[in-house]
Specification:
Elements: H1 2-40, H2 45-52, E1 55-60, H3 68-75, E2 80-84, E3 89-95, E4 100-106, H4 111-128, H5 132-139, E5 147-151, H6 159-166, E6 171-174, E7 180-186, E8 192-200, H7 207-247, H8 262-312, H9 316-346, E9 355-358, H10 359-369, E10 377-380, E11 390-393, H11 395-412, E12 416-423, E13 427-434, H12 468-478, E14 482-487, E15 494-501
Parallel strand pairs: 10-12
Antiparallel strand pairs: 1-4, 2-3, 3-4, 5-8, 6-7, 7-8, 9-11, 12-13, 13-15, 14-15
């Protein structure tokens, strides 16, 4: 509806301009002939007024109030056409000399004005003494419709119209559909006639006007579609940002809801989902804390009881069994610690305190602190910490991730673990290689799964709970990186790689 109203308004404005141009084209030739005649002989003013059935006056610029736009039009020899008396008559003005102008007021533009124009044109040609074609070509620029010469026989006139032309009348022909008119006057002494026109009727729905309206309609519809799509896109971007924040562990992320459209309903569903996830994770965290507390208490009592028994029993066999039970309790305590660490990293995201740290120094520290089996050697072969670049990391968790990888490699290596570190302008990389049995390629995707145990490497004798590599993967994720596994070309075993951006960008 709005587009239709705007288009109708635009059509009216376009037709207002086109109508003014049409009126100017119709009267410009007559005004030119009048001005030329009165410049030569001002005394013919009354005669011209009678011929054209109009009021004619020669005025100075001081007598007429004209704005700058109207003056510029007159200086460019373009007529002024204005309506007076609420459209009851039309007022025409054209330049007569540098200081005067011709003013013509007509009540109507009818057959009499067309005849007067044709007579003036014929008289001016007779006075000029020029060939008719040359004369018409010279005055054509001052007319808004064509001027031409044609044999009378080609005009397809009735006997009555032919007789009128022979007697010197001006024949005004109007087509039956009232859309076109022309004036015809015979050239004396010849079988030719001058044709003024045709003058086509003003068409408010011409193809030019319709084209302009179509362009305006398409632009308005395009703007409307752009506004709708852009508003949807902006709200979807907000939803995307909230989703990203939720994925990064900000469980309080929500989107504002405004309206009842599809995006609002999607935002409402997202908020409900986020609330449900936050509630479930909160319950899960409480459960993990409660279970860890309840497990640690009996484990501590068991260890205290075993120590009492160990102090009171001297039998070697019993002492051996007690030590085995103590090792099992220690393993259970470590398992609880691993579960708590994994839960903090996996469920909703930990609170990370990123700092500018020398990564090579952390790797060297982990290598120095490593306690592999006696037959395994852990060596550092990366860049020196003195020349290494700093990076933004959470030092506690990065230390834990590298420690888990070095400890994991030490358990499966035959004799050697090789650790390298490199810090580039954009990324950090730590590689841990061993000379153990390696990991089959088809099982690379499984090693980072929680509690996963591979048949050829994850055994009871080698230790581990299936959580160490899962913790490494989550630490890499919270640093915006990833943990990878491949084969070591240098040592022949497995190679674990930890890669993450040098600068933290959540």
């Amino acid at each position: 509806m709005v587009v239709a109203l705007v288009c109708l308004t635009a059509l009216q404005l376009v037709n207002l301009v086109r109508s003014a141009q049409f009126n100017e084209n119709v009267v410009s030739g007559s005004l030119y002939l009048l001005a030329e005649r009165l410049q030569q002989d001002p005394s013919q003013l009354n005669e011209m007024a009678t011929r054209f059935d109009a009021r004619l006056a020669i005025l100075s610029f001081d007598e007429v109030k004209l704005d700058d736009y109207q003056k510029n039009r007159l200086v460019k020899n373009r007529p002024l056409v204005t309506s007076t008396n609420f459209g009851g008559s039309v007022l025409l003005r054209t330049l007569l000399s540098e200081s005067t102008l011709l003013e013509v007021e007509m009540n109507s533009v009818a057959e009499q004005q067309a005849q007067a124009t044709a007579y003036l044109l014929l008289e001016d040609w007779l006075r000029s003494g020029k060939p008719i074609e040359q004369f018409l070509a010279e005055v054509q620029p001052h007319f808004g419709y064509p001027l031409s010469v044609a044999p009378v026989q080609q005009l397809e006139l009735s006997d009555y119209d032919s007789a009128r032309l022979q007697y010197g009348d001006v024949l005004v022909r109007i087509k039956l559909d009232d859309k076109e008119a022309e004036s015809i006057i015979k050239i004396p002494g010849t079988d030719q006639a001058i044709i003024l026109g045709p003058i086509r009727a003003f068409n408010p729905y011409s193809w030019q006007a319709v084209l302009v309206i179509l362009v305006i309609a398409i632009m308005l519809i395009g703007l409307g579609v752009y506004w709708v799509v852009n508003s949807f896109e902006l709200r979807l971007r907000k939803l995307e940002r909230a989703t990203s924040r939720l994925a990064q562990g900000h469980l309080s992320a929500r989107v504002s809801i405004d309206g009842q459209d599809a995006v609002s309903r999607l935002g409402e569903a997202f908020n409900k989902m986020a609330e449900h996830i936050q509630r479930l994770i909160s319950i899960q965290r409480e459960m993990v804390r409660a279970v860890s507390h309840e497990l640690r208490t009996p484990v501590a009592r068991l260890r205290f009881g075993l120590q009492i028994i160990e102090d009171s029993v001297e039998d070697d066999y019993t002492q051996k069994q007690i030590k085995g039970m103590d090792a099992d309790i220690e393993e259970l305590d470590e398992l609880i610690d691993e579960i708590l660490t994994y839960a903090r990293l996996e469920e909703g995201g930990p609170l990370l305190d990123f700092q500018r740290i020398n990564i090579a120094a952390i790797v060297e520290q982990v290598v120095d602190e490593a306690r592999p089996p006696e037959n395994v050697e852990v060596v550092y072969a990366g860049e020196s910490s003195e020349h290494s670049l700093f990076a933004e990391v959470e030092p506690r968790y990065i230390h834990r991730a590298i420690q888990n990888l070095v400890g994991n490699a030490g358990r499966y290596a035959n004799s050697k673990v090789r650790v390298t570190c490199s810090v580039g302008s954009d990324s950090c990389r730590v590689d841990i290689e061993d000379d153990g049995p390696g990991i089959p390629k088809e099982q690379w995707d499984k090693v980072f799964t929680a509690f996963a145990r591979l048949d050829d490497s994850r055994t009871r004798s080698s230790g581990g709970y299936g959580l160490g590599l899962s913790i490494v993967r989550r630490i890499a994720y919270w640093h915006g990186g990833q943990a990878l596994v491949s084969n070591s070309e240098l040592l022949g075993g497995a190679r674990f790689s930890l890669i993450w951006p040098r600068r933290y960008n959540p």
